Amino acid sequence: MIAFREKLLPAALPLAVLSWLALLVCMLLRAHQPAAAQWGTPPDWLILATQAAFAAGVFVYERSRPDRLRGAEFVPLLRQLLLGPGLLATAVVGLHLAGHWLLPETIGNQPILLNTLYTINLGLFVYFLARTCYTWRSLVHFRAQPSTRREWEWFELLLGATLLFRLVQGRELHWPLLPVMAVLAGLGVYLSAHQQWVAYLNRRQKWEVVFLQAAILGGMAVCLVYFLRLQREPSLAGPLAQHAFLLLTGFFAAFYAVMGLLVTLFNLPTAGVFEQKREEILSMQRLAQLIQKGQSEQEVYNLLFDSSVQTVEADAAWLDLADDNPTPLLEYQVDADTRQGICQLLSDYNIGHIEYLNNDLPHSAGFRALGLGYCSLIVMPLRSSKHHYGTLYLLKRFRQGFDRENLSLLQIFTSQTVLSIENLRLLEDSLQNERVKEELKIASLVQEGLIPKTLPADSWFEIRWHSLPAREVGGDFYDFLQLSSSRIAIIIGDVSGKGTTAAFHVAQMKGIFHSLMLLDRPEKGQPLQPSKFMAMANQALSHCLERSSFITASFYIIDYKERGFAFARAGHCHTLYYNAITEETFYFQTEGLGLGIIRDASYEKRIKNMYYDYNPGDVMVMYTDGIVEARNAEDEEYGEARLRQLLARSHYLEAEDIKQAIINDLEQFSRGLPPFDDQTLLIIKFKNAQPMA
Amino acid sequence: MKIVQNAANDTLTLGLDGELDASSSVLLDNELTKPEILNYRKVMIDCQRLNYISSAGLGVFISHLQRFQDAGVKLVFFNMQEKVHNVFEILGLDSLMTIVPSEQEATAI
């Protein structure tokens, strides 16, 4: 059935054209007596049939055309209708009508001209009607339920059936058909109620639509007058066109236009509201987009302020940030007195930073006393769960200026803004964090640069070290300095505390070490005594170390020629030693106070020098408390005893292997627990060999 | 870390309970910084329950040592666990501060 209909559709236009030509021929034959005598007079039924075929062809053709409505472009749709068939039909019909009135003799006496024009006008009018009906169909179908579409199809079907009325009846309408026509007219009225499309027009478009509809109605009126006028024309050769069908379609087309016109007119006053809602939606979209773009805070505040003022149509407004700055971040048509007065009053009422809506300011004594030119006020704080960012104030001149919708919209705006500001700050924080991390990395690199990289290479001793800071930068330090070919100075120490502060003192200590080494002049019989070094270091530190900080250090000067070393301990961990002759492992028990604990000359008395002669094969282990105070999961300390036992077992190894043995044992002990404190380890193994030239 | 205070006549006894590390040493520093503490003749530190002392904890005592000496306030430690005593000893503080084994000896000073 559908396939059959599909095949018939292309035939609609040729049918319309051919039947119109046939109608024209029939009319001319009847108007021209000699021709009729020669060719025969066409009967009434033939003319009526061609008329019906023509109307059916035009309507079916229009019906099969694709929907002319693009999206929600209603104005162009109506304009097309008016400027196309509407204007054409009205102009031609109007001209004929005008000619009829102005020169009744000329046109009335020429039946051929009259009948030709009548046939042309009829064609144009039917086409205009068909276009109008199917334009209305587009509007009725706009966002319509399927049930409405079915109703429309029934309406079409019944209208089509009325085409047959004129064929079966005589010159006048049959009374039994009237109820049917009444029902159809009712259906047309019912369908005319579908005017949802009007709601999608803005104010300007509504005005345009009003004028377009009025013009279309005007065109129809001209046509109506024309056909009423021709009804009484004696020269008209054929019977009049399809009464019922044209009447009903004309009625529907006009009624829908009138309804549309009225609905649009009644909607005109509320068009502003529609525009406002549209503006609100656009503002919200803009706000949401800005959040994603991650602009500056100032821009976000600007957008909030502009959107708020625009959408609630405030007469005055300002935005205060939650700092002590007396001038607002943004303001709109408001003077300082008004601002300060309102803020003072609100804080007096103790409602300075809460959401507040007053639509009748003169009603409350406090505001009346201010003598403001405004009657409505909204106070909208910008706050998250933790932070108060600022407050937005909006004023209107008349009472009841703000409604609940304004308030909820502003709530959405402000919460969007707060979200956006918090996002920006989070971003800023994470950048800052990145920067700090980067700087710490640099500090760590700088500190690593302070640690000696080159081994004091000599064949009479071996030295190995290991250092592991607990954080990026540490408080442990060690350094070497070759004083002469046979003497070397070594320092190891630990600054109290950890991290960056400790790292600064480490750098200081390194400076002090290298400066004081200049005082070592053995060639003049003035070798530097370790206790003297400590005393001078203590004095230097007393000026630059905060009161609660101190430094522990052990300082050694090893002399190959003498085969011995001198050292002093300033509160640092005891040095572990293995004597290859006695095969004993022990800690040097010397006294010595940490640096920076007492800061006067009496310090020197608390530091002892110690001298020791070494033998080839002796091992010296220097370390910081991070080694012996390393803890395991059971909260036990590694301890001096365990370290001593380990050396007793591993003293025969090379320095590198002893170091590795200690590190392995430490790891085994702490079982993967990260170091709690910086760990530093120095191993020296004395050798028998001669120093290199 | 808990600090138990006990004032009797001209003596203030502070009982330290727990670990004296970087964070808890702030508490102790607050106590020792109070000006009225200099009105006592003697401040006794009970270290019986002190399990651990970090360099920050030592720093607190070191930073108040001079102030106490200048004001003529004696600072006495007693009941110190061996582990903690070892830390004082390594740093050389045992020669600088008064550390006695028992409360009786501390009171007698």
Automatic annotation (TrEMBL), chain A:
Ranges in coiled-coil conformation: 421-448
Keywords: Coiled coil, Hydrolase, Membrane, Transmembrane, Transmembrane helix
Ranges where the GAF domain occurs: 279-431
Membrane-spanning segments: 41-61, 81-100, 112-130, 174-193, 209-228, 240-268
Keyword Repressor: no
A GO molecular-function annotation: phosphatase activity
PPM-type phosphatase domain sequence ranges: 458-686
Protein name according to UniProt: Serine/threonine protein phosphatase
Species in which this protein is naturally found: Solirubrum puertoriconensis
Automatic annotation (TrEMBL), chain B:
Protein family membership: Belongs to the anti-sigma-factor antagonist family.
Organism this protein belongs to: Solirubrum puertoriconensis
Protein's name in the database: Anti-sigma factor antagonist
Molecular-function GO term, any one: anti-sigma factor antagonist activity
UniProt domain STAS: residue ranges: 1-109
Protein origin, superkingdom: Bacteria
